[in-house]
């Protein structure tokens, strides 16, 4: 029995040895044989169907570094490679034609969201290279924010949207029509509750519009209380400050104090010196802001490259007293010169649209201050009757030397302050104007500095960490443009003219603009505030 058992063991061992040898021989044959397309072991791994490579481009990474020739690889909505890359088998390859590839531009002060439901392709914005817009500006925001998010998810747009919670919106929700006064403690508490709700919904922070109703009536202590809550939630503050002209110095101190007390980042919206007595003082203003930053206050700004702004007529009268003749005279002499002030909306007499205050004064056979008095009264009467804003104007109140100084401050990024249905040229021309006029023609900025102010710096100022740069892991928001030809064409006389030189724009890896036209793709997403890690 023992001998039989030994023989069986030997046979079993020999069989196992032969099987192992056969397996080794098969493996060696596979390693030495040439792979074929039908060989499932050696065939290259297939690439994702939405993977593509753009080659022959000058890559500007958005950090402010000089451009580098190379390629960028995208898979899905994410950048997966940057450098001298070879296409993977089956990967779509685009030739950039030696043009510049930059991160998509982030518009930190935009009014585009108001009309996205009607114009989801957002042509005025994407044709400039804008891939993300920041809503909730000048104190006005969609409320509640969760409702806007749901609508945007159901009906997306060509670009991404993030939003602040608007102080004016919160104030109006709490105080209704009884807003021409300082809020009570109880009313501010209710504003705080609504603000907390909006922050929980992903708002970036608190946005103020302190030259507008109802925020103009708020006490600075109200903003401080709301600011402290915003800071506790890891948010930030952005403001159309309380005055851009008469009381500019005091308004600047207010936003600096909010930054000092709360410790959160604070940003001045559409930075400007919009009054003759302020012209030429941009260096003094920046010295004040640099001193605040040296103190540890994280104060920044955004700016658009035009000498004129757009708003409603009543903004010219911060006291809201249309019968104050001295204020009317000051407005037309120092802030809104009649020849540089024209109407972009006037519902009582639509034929006035496009006309200057000087021309309207002649038509009415009166002086400019009296004509302004009449226009404001007529517009306010119609607004009261209809419940809708009945007027808008553009006023030339800045000078280019100040714009250049403020733009060159290391902490100023670019914005448009424009919408989709807009008669101000900034709505279609801002970013190409920076690239064409301020970079190529005036040499006021280097190309990499300008792109940094449009992408990486704007990204930093809004608290994003996954956009605004070209590097692996970032979202594939990209713009391809020709630095030799990019330029704006919109003017006050032809405000609807699109810019040229922007060749193609991608949002989350999907083309939204090419060859001068919107693609019809709507890949935009809502970007909530990134929650602070505890």
Describe the structure.
Among the domains are: 104-307 and 398-466, TIM Barrel (Alpha-Beta Barrel); 311-395, no CATH class. Strands 1, 2, 3, 4, 5, 18, 19, 20 and 21 form a nine-stranded mixed sheet that branches. A six-stranded parallel sheet has the order 9-10-11-12-13-17, with helices on both faces. The model is unreliable at 1-44 (pLDDT under 50). It is globular. It has 15 helices and 21 strands. It has helices at 2-32, 123-126, 145-154, 167-175, 185-200, 220-232, 248-262, 282-294, 325-335, 357-363, 368-386, 400-408, 426-441, 447-454, 456-462; strands at 51-59, 68-75, 78-83, 92-95, 100-103, 105-107, 130-135, 160-163, 165-166, 205-209, 236-240, 266-268, 299-303, 308-311, 341-346, 391-396, 412-414, 478-481, 502-507, 510-514, 517-518. Helix 8 (282-294) links the parallel strand 12 (266-268) and strand 13. 35% of the residues lie in helices and 19% in strands. With 534 residues, it is α/β, with parallel strands linked by helices.
């Amino acid at each position: 029995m023992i001998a039989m058992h030994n023989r069986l063991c030997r046979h079993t061992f020999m069989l196992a040895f032969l099987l192992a040898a056969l397996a080794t021989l098969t493996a060696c044959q596979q390693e030495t044989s040439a792979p074929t397309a039908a060989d499932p072991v050696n065939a290259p791994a297939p690439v994702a169907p939405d993977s593509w490579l753009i080659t022959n481009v000058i890559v500007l990474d958005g950090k402010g570094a000089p451009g580098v020739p190379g390629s960028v690889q995208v898979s899905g909505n994410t950048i997966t490679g940057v450098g001298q890359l070879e296409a993977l088998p089956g990967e779509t390859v685009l030739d950039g034609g030696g043009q510049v590839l930059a991160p998509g531009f982030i518009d930190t002060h935009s009014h585009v969201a108001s009309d996205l439901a009607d114009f989801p392709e957002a042509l005025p914005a994407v044709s400039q290279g804008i891939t993300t817009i920041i809503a909730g500006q000048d104190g006005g925001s969609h409320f509640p924010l969760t409702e806007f998010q749901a609508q945007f998810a159901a009906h997306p747009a060509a670009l991404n949207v993030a939003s602040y919670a608007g102080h004016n919106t919160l104030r109006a929700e709490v105080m209704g029509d009884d807003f021409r006064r300082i809020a009570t403690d109880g009313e501010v508490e209710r504003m705080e509750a609504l603000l907390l709700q909006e922050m929980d919904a992903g708002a970036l922070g608190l946005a103020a519009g302190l030259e507008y109703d109802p925020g103009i009536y708020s006490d600075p202590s109200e903003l401080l209380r709301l600011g402290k809550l915003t800071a506790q939630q890891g948010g930030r503050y952005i403001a159309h400050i309380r005055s851009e002209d008469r009381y500019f110095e005091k308004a600047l101190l207010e936003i600096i104090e909010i930054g000092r007390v709360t410790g959160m980042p604070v940003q001045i919206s559409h930075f400007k010196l919009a009054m003759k007595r302020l012209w030429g003082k941009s260096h003094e203003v920046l010295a004040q802001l640099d001193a605040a930053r040296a103190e540890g206050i994280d104060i920044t700004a955004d700016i658009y490259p035009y000498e004129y702004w757009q708003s409603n007529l009543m903004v010219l009268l911060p006291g809201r007293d249309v019968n104050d003749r001295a204020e009317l005279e000051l407005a037309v002499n120092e802030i809104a010169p009649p020849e540089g002030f024209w109407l972009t909306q006037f519902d009582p007499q639509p034929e006035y649209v496009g006309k200057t205050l000087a021309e309207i004064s002649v038509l009415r056979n009166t002086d400019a201050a009296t004509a302004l008095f009449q226009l404001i009264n007529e517009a306010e009467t119609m607004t009261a009757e209809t419940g809708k804003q009945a007027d808008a104007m553009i006023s030339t109140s800045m000078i280019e030397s100040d714009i250049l100084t403020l733009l060159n401050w290391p902490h100023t990024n670019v914005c448009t302050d424009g919408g989709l249905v807009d008669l101000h040229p900034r709505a279609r021309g801002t970013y190409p104007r920076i690239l064409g006029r301020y970079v190529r023609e005036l040499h006021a900025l280097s190309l990499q500095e300008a792109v940094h102010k449009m992408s990486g710096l704007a990204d930093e100022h809004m608290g994003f960490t996954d956009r605004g740069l070209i590097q692996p892991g970032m979202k594939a928001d990209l713009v391809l443009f020709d630095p030799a030809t990019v330029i704006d064409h919109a003017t006050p006389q032809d405000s609807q003219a699109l810019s040229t030189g922007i060749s193609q724009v991608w949002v989350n890896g999907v083309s939204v603009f090419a060859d001068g036209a919107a693609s019809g793709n709507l890949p935009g997403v809502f970007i909530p505030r990134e929650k602070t890690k505890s």
